[in-house]
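user: can you give me the structure for this one chain? tokens are fine.
assistant: on it. calling the predictor now.
[tool input]
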Amino acid sequence: MRSTTKNSSPVPRRALIVSADIGAGHNSAGRALEEAMGRAWPGCQVRWLDTLAAVGPGFGPLARAFYVSQIRHTPQMYEFFFSAMWRHRWYLESVRRGLGSWFGRRMGPRIRALDPDVIVSTYPLGSAGLSWLRRHGKLAVPAGAWVPAFCPHPSWLYRDLDITFVMHPAAAVAAAKAEPGLRVAVGALPVRDAFAPQERTVARARLGLETGRFTVALCPGSLGFGGMGRAAQALLDAGGDVQVLMLCGRNKRLRRELAGRGRHRGRLRVFGWTQDMPGLMAASDVVVGNAGGATGLEALASGRPVIMFEPIAGHGRANAELMADSGLALLAWSPAELSRTVRRLASNPGAASELSALALARATSRRREEDLADLAAMAVQ
């Protein structure tokens, strides 16, 4: 590393982002950190390593298909194994050892070829591989993990890494309890600059939306998991003054289903995969999600209240409950409860404003550049 910043903090020559193309949240967090690296580490070359691709051709699509199948068809099984790692230390450690060895051995040659000065991980299996490399004396540069979701599952947490950044003080408490001795810190939200408070009327005019209606962005993530058809209907049933922005991501079947509801034309706008998530959130009064990952963090950075509807199994439920306990989300476990919650926020601007203020307080409490500087400084300790 070379030291060129005014405060003499190290500036890496080469940085590596370890992520994975599974869903969109891990890569979204990586892009947010890359954006901050351009300011924190001028001149640094940034490279990426896809953890799943490092295993070999065909493994990534297989892993993605398995994950989607679990969430859609066997959520109880996913919840069982997710919860078991909280309850049984022996099971957690056996999973860590197996996955760490499997991914670490395959990531090692790629990392040596890229020769980074610092490594940032936004994906738990990538962190497992990095941890294995560190334990076996094959990783000498600073390596930090970012948890781009609200609740830090034990499978994210590795004491062999230099630092782990979580999203809230409550998450730091949970992480320290799950992994005693972990070096954990409350970091900035790993969300791109574009997700920031904007004027609603301008954003709505740009999208051709009616400016006077209470607007809800329904955001089930890139894969469109969960009962989004029920959620959309519940929101439309909340009142004629409610308009819904349904973001289907890459779920083409969901998009076709909702686009066929012509009787709600004018109050229901259906979107597929879009690059304008910041604009759609800016146009909304409230964001409804079901997982508490990247979309939830982006909503907080945009200063929008969050409702978690029928959270998906495993990480979705854990994230939603911790967000609610921290005062940063409302929970709706049924379509009727979702309708009531939206009507309450629409009729009580003060309640919505209070949630927005809490979201912005969390979003602006720290900068990504500070987290990166802390990680880089570990090279000279």
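assistant: here you go. The chain has two domains: 2-188+366-380, 200-363. The mean pLDDT is 86.
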